[in-house]
Amino acid sequence: MAEPKKLYIKTYGCQMNVYDSERMAEALEGYEETATPDDADLILLNTCHIREKAAEKVYSELGRYKHLKAENPDLKIGVAGCVAQAEGAEIMRRQQMVDLVVGPQSYHRLPELEAKARSGAKALDTDFPEELKFDHLAKRPKAKRGPTAFLTVQEGCDKFCAFCVVPYTRGAEVSRPVDTVLDEARGLVERGVREITLLGQNVNAYHGASADGERSLAQLIWALNDIDGLDRIRFTTSHPNDMSDDLIAAQGECEKLMPYLHLPVQSGSNAVLKKMNRKHTAEQYIRLIERIRAARPDILISGDFIVGFPGETDQDFADTMALVEEVRYGQCYSFKYSSRPGTPAAERALVDADVARERLTRLQRLLTTQQHAIQDAMVGREVSVLFERAGRLPGQMVGKSEYLHAVHVSDDSISTGDLRRVRIAQSAPNSLAGELAHG
Ligand code: SAH
Ligand code: SF4
Ligand code: F3S
């Protein structure tokens, strides 16, 4: 058999890209992954277009490969992901060294595209094909896995928030059939996975086909709950308007569903929410959080915020701060608005850059204070931790609690993949530490 060729994949952006990169590596038979671009025969950049900075990274990274291409004429370079979808052939014009461009819905065609690039032609595919890439991709399990895995169940978005590129880069919203999701989940569990995070840009809009008609995300979660050997289920990212009653109830009733919910609101101002086309008010969001907490009182809520959206006034920003005060988040991502070509908001006048920067600093300070308060309150409590890997100190292991806090424990009896009870003793800025709980 021929020596396998070497594949280097660099992944940017969201968890769906992480999942896709794993599938691309599996689809490219005859390749094995390498940890550095230096000895690669094929370099793939799996890119993100969500903010300007994310998209720019692609071109600076490509610049670094110039010398590799000069040294190794057989090296092929490909761009995948959301920049590939958004910019298409333009990437090859801007960077002549790029041999292959493939959009997120066409990864099952990667072997053909690679062969075309190998033959010396430029290979481009940014279609939204009829057939689902998953039908071809998810069936090639490789070796044993770590204890946690992502599983994409829904992709694309029909919501068209005024700032967001996702509906254009990932296309219309589609859900995978229930059976294929359950098969893939069973396959992961057979390879050692104990925790699965279901992924989708709008994962709670999931409506997968089954022999008994369409199934909701909550129904899918209940079906996964029956898989022996699977201990934990998570899902991300959810939209407030798709938080259905059965999903809220599952948060309280489904034993394997973890008490952590990422539910972005973006802004606390009704005027801004309207301009963003989010189709709900701040009051409706707060009421929703109350209902979720009634179902599962200890749930940790996380979110995303955009500050400096076009037209955002001081009062609008004050409303965002007030919403944050009321919700009390455990963990959040917050961003300065970045204008994206082709989105409705791109036409609108920007907020002054200094004002936006100052608002972001104030918001992040408040979010950090809340994150620390919730972490500090864990001290003295017992949590369950799924251990994922060795820590930096000798004998130390790191895992995640139910609430997705990173937890460090030094104890020789712990192995990767163990699920153990831990008593929290310390809270550090971004993690917790404790000891195994005995008895
Ligand atoms: N589907 C998810 C979010 C996907 S993008 C949702 O509906 O919440 C992840 C986050 O990036 C968003 O929640 C938003 O906070 C941020 N984001 C998206 N577009 C942005 C833009 N143009 N500028 C700044 N942040 C943006
Ligand atoms: Fe983007 Fe809005 Fe869709 Fe989320 S819901 S992916 S923010 S358009
Ligand atoms: Fe980025 Fe595309 Fe994900 S734009 S956030 S990689 S869906």
Could you please describe the fold and organization of this structure?
This protein is an alpha/beta fold and 439 residues long. It has three domains: 5-125, 3-Layer(aba) Sandwich (Rossmann fold); 133-306, pyruvate-formate lyase- activating enzyme, CATH 3.80.30.20; 382-436, Nucleic acid-binding proteins (OB fold (Dihydrolipoamide Acetyltransferase, E2P), Beta Barrel), CATH 2.40.50.140. 35% of the residues lie in helices and 23% in strands. The strands form six sheets. The chain has a six-stranded parallel sheet with strand order 2-1-3-4-5-6, sandwiched between helices. Helix 10 (217-225) runs parallel beside helix 11 (245-253), helix 11 packs parallel to helix 13 (282-295) and helix 14 (314-327) packs parallel to helix 15. The model has no long low-confidence stretch (mean pLDDT 96). Iron/sulfur cluster is lined by residues 157, 159-161, 164, 166-167, 201-202, 239.
Pairing-aware structural class of the strands and helices? alpha/beta
The hetero molecules present are: S-adenosyl-L-homocysteine, iron/sulfur cluster, FE3-S4 cluster
Number of helices: 15
- Indicate the percent of residues in helices: 25-40%
What strand order characterises the main sheet?
2-1-3-4-5-6
**CATH superfamily heading of the largest domain:** tm_1862 like domain
Q: Report how far the terminal alpha carbons are from each other.
A: 54 Å
Query: What is the number of beta strands?
Result: 21
- The share of residues in extended strands comes to 15-25%
Mean pLDDT: 96
Count of domains:
3
Let me know the largest β-sheet. 6 strands, parallel
CATH 2nd-level architecture of the largest domain: Alpha-Beta Horseshoe
**Unreliable residue runs:** none
